Sequence to fold (178 residues):
Amino acid sequence: MEKASNTRRWTVVLAGLVAIALLTAGCKASDSSSSDGGSSQPPGTVAVDLTNETAGQPKAGGKLAYGLNAESDGYNPALGRWASSTYIVGFSMMDPLAAYDDKLQPQPYLAKKFESNADFTQWTITTRDGVTLHDGKPVDRSSSRRTSTPRRPRRSRGPRSTSSTRSRSGRRTRSSSR
Fold:
């Protein structure tokens, strides 16, 4: 009985040591020069260049598989509940009017400048020149207002409802409407 518990204990210890060894081997920094041209990054830091300027012209077709850690109920920023991964997908399709800088202060992004009245109830947002929508139309006052104003959800088209009204004679009548 005692021999079986000792064997089980050593099996757990050995499995833990193997797991630590595998993690250590996978996380070990390489001794070769870094891929960023010898910048002053700490050892073990991976430099990632997110742009590929030499990729050439895009080609139609193909397949892209993308894994997300959470779901969203839509991509309308005014109505949807966005999880952290929804921001990744959303910002790949649309740009914000402002973005945070490295000191977490909002800075104009698509906007050129923001101005407000004294009590911050009215704002004037001036967009940069040359900003266009997905269809090539320029961003103007009406398109900005249309995309930034929340819309009410459409009413459900359920079964016909009935209502009662009084006719001219004072009698109650029932009518149905769609």
Notes: The chain has a mean pLDDT of 75.
